[in-house]
Amino acid sequence: MARFRPHSTAPVPERAILVGVDLGRSEWSCEESLAELARLAETDGAEVVLTMTQRLDAPVPKTFIGKGKVEELVSAVRALDADVVIFDDELTPSQQANLERAVGEPVKIIDRTALILDIFGVHAKTHEGRLQVQLAQLQYVLPRLRGMWSHLVGEQTRGGIGSRFGQGESQLEVDRRLVRARISTLRRELERLERRREVQSKARWDSGVYRVALVGYTNAGKSTLLNRLTGSDVYAKDELFATLDPTTRALELEEGRRITITDTVGFIQKLPTTLVESFKSTLAEVRAADLVLLVVDVSDPHRELEISAVRSVLEEIGAHEIRCVEVLNKSDLVDEAELREATAMHPDAQVVSALDGSGVRGLLYRIAHEASLGSVSLTVLVPYEKGLLMKMVHERCQVMRESYVQEGLLATVRADARMAATLEPYVVEESS
């Protein structure tokens, strides 16, 4: 007989109860929104044991849900031994405190915003990403300081959902003044990083490199598509918010033009305002793009709602006027009838499967076509002593014909407006 009995060291998933209120005001049905909330909870390591809903004309000021539903919730928490209750809509600090008193310790009461912030806290890897998440978390915590702070201290050792707020702080027993001071410090640091990013973005603009940004609902397959297009190995996984930090990779099109493609943070409906504000420097990569590829999971039954949510965020960050091409991804997961229906609704979209590579060549052709819009044909003679300009011709133009003559490089190219202006002094013959 074994002397010692082995014990599993794997973390035990927290048992979560989801609560949604149908107010009849959203494009998303209450059931659809709760299904997404369940995926978020599972992404954060929880096991959903029950989903509760209530139809109301307006949230109850004191507890968000009605008195009878609160009693039902308390009974369910005890019967199912739940660890956390997650509300699909944002709770006010007083509503959260009242619900915590009703349910009793050690059960946690959090909302959708807190859950998303928690996931971001786990997945942010870069220095800037962590600063952005800290800022969003502290802005969320500040008005809840009186009701939450001791609760957070108690959760520091237990861990789990809703307990990672204020990551990077050496102590949690801080007052409002210290939290505000930390928020100010984070904002200054992020402003410094944003200025540096703007300098880098301006350098790319001055270089004339065509910039493409991938945007889309979380888990639409942006990172997988980036890997497929550029041959890189960006982390990609079938889960919500698998990657948060922007990644830029270079790509050379068949015509010889070099472009950059940037993968950005995934969007979601009811994206917390604090997160949009905190991630503005990251989302600046989208605003600075020449072309936006809106990646859509064509197999998702909620794709139209997701497209609407993404376009809403693009408008919120001031990127809605940038040229945008929809990319219907994951075509390998749908049958021909579903694909025909999707393409009928989005006739200008590119259909691809980032996983098996189908349609990617057509997408590259479309990118090349978009990059060439507004280009003009020029025949130029670049002297040999202008070596940098020769390099720019090969990297930034579509070279249709070239030869090396005694005076330098004689080439017929298609160039965008910026490059055409640079080459103007060397034009020897203009083509239509």
Describe the overall structure.
By secondary structure, the protein is an alpha/beta fold. Helix content is 44%, strand content 21%. The chain has helices at 30-43, 67-80, 93-103, 112-123, 127-141, 145-158, 176-207, 222-230, 273-278, 280-287, 303-316, 336-345, 360-372, 387-396, 417-423; strands at 14-22, 46-55, 84-87, 108-111, 210-216, 247-252, 258-263, 291-297, 324-329, 350-351, 376-383, 398-405, 408-415, 427-430. The strands form three sheets. Strands 6-7-5-8-9-10 form a six-stranded mixed beta sheet, with helices on both faces. A four-stranded parallel beta sheet has the order 2-1-3-4, sandwiched between helices. Helix 11 links the parallel strand 8 (291-297) and strand 9 (324-329). It is elongated. The chain starts with 13 loop residues before the first strand and ends with a strand. It holds the Pfam family MMR_HSR1.
List the helices and strands and how they pair.
Elements: E1 14-22, H1 30-43, E2 46-55, H2 67-80, E3 84-87, H3 93-103, E4 108-111, H4 112-123, H5 127-141, H6 145-158, H7 176-207, E5 210-216, H8 222-230, E6 247-252, E7 258-263, H9 273-278, H10 280-287, E8 291-297, H11 303-316, E9 324-329, H12 336-345, E10 350-351, H13 360-372, E11 376-383, H14 387-396, E12 398-405, E13 408-415, H15 417-423, E14 427-430
Parallel strand pairs: 1-2, 1-3, 3-4, 5-7, 5-8, 8-9, 9-10
Antiparallel strand pairs: 6-7, 11-13, 11-14, 12-13
Helix pairs in contact: 1-4, 4-5, 5-7, 7-10
GO molecular function: GTP binding; GTPase activity; metal ion binding; ribosome binding
Protein name: GTPase HflX
Keywords: Coiled coil, Cytoplasm, GTP-binding, Magnesium, Metal-binding, Nucleotide-binding
